[in-house]
Amino acid sequence: MAETGREETDMKSRLLGVGELLWDLLPGNPQMGGAPANFACHAAALGAHAAIISRVGNDALGMDLVTRLLSLGVSTELLQTDPEVPTGTVDVEIQRDGQPRFTIHEAVAWDRLAPTDTALAAATAANAVCFGTLAQRAELSRSTIQALLGAVHPHAFRILDVNLRQHFYSREILESSLTLANVLKVNDAELPILGMLVGTSDSPRAIIERLADSFGLKVIAYTRGEHGSLLWADGRWSDHPGIPTQVVDTVGAGDAFTVAMTLGLLVGWDLDTVNQNANAVASEVASHPGATPPISEPLRCLFQGCQD
To answer: Is residue 177 within 8 Å of residue 162, measured between CB atoms?
Structure first.
């Protein structure tokens, strides 16, 4: 899986998150959030060139997001500023099992994402672009995301992280997103819903194979929380049981998994190595509060090739 449409692939691949950027209003400690933002932040932490295409309000919360992204090494050159609507916010309740419950506010800046020339050029140059279904809840942002995915190099990774939040998805959005993608990341709560989309309630492996066949997907990552993950890539399987973790919260852990998997695939690691290392990164994120905690030096070196 090292093919990317570039003559060389290294850990300085260009990874791009597209979609929602917001504040997760966690109890007592607001955190920057949004799956595409988390994707970009984890990509930067693991050594990639990382940027996000999103939109913030012309307000203090928006400026704070810019500051936060820059502090994490993420380019803000592709951020848009909306003069009329506020920066996005989400109320987050952490349940007893560590899983988050979200209340996502509407009519915010990332619902009005625009297809600028610079955004289209960045999508064309990227080795991997991660997008989701949540940011497509509004017609304007949905058409922009579809235009950006259409500009991505045919051999680059177009990664769909479905993010089935509240009522902000539909069969039409799911089908069009799967058609645009060549990589799918889905969790254990979401896979049965996608199974219904392709007309099967069979085993996870059967659903994965049906999805791959129906939409021409190259890679599918099925994450199962504490039970690890199942990867499928061009007919090959890798099943990882998970890493025992003292979970603080799981916000951002799935996004960290997606980044680690993407970087591993880009450099041609074998599928079991990809799965092991992605689980290690996700486990570390889940053991700390917030979506984008610092990544430990041993894990960073694993991806950045640190020299002794």
So the answer is: yes
- CB 246, CB 233: distance < 8 Å: no
Mind giving me the DSSP string for 190-226? Answer: THHHHHHHTT--S-HHHHHHHHHHHHT-SEEEEE-GG
Cα–Cα dist 58/210, whole Å: 44
pLDDT at residue 24, rounded to an integer: 83
Superfamily of domain 14-290, CATH level 4: Ribokinase (3.40.1190.20)
Q: What is the dihedral of CA 192, 195, 201, 204, to 10 degrees?
A: -70
Phi/psi at 86 (5° precision): -80, 165
Give the chain's residues under pLDDT 70: 1-11, 98, 100, 306-308
Domain boundaries, the chain: 14-290
Whole-angstrom distance, CA of residue 119 vs CA of residue 82? 16
- Strand-pair partners of 23: 32, 89
Q: Going by C-beta distance under 8 Å and a sequence separation of 6 or more, which residues neighbour residue 2?
A: 9, 265, 266, 267, 268
Q: What is the DSSP string of 123-135?
A: HHH-SEEEEESGG
Q: CA-CA distance, 30 to 149, in Å (whole number)?
A: 31
Q: Give the per-residue pLDDT at 224.
A: 95
**Torsion 41-194-100-247 (CA) sign:** negative
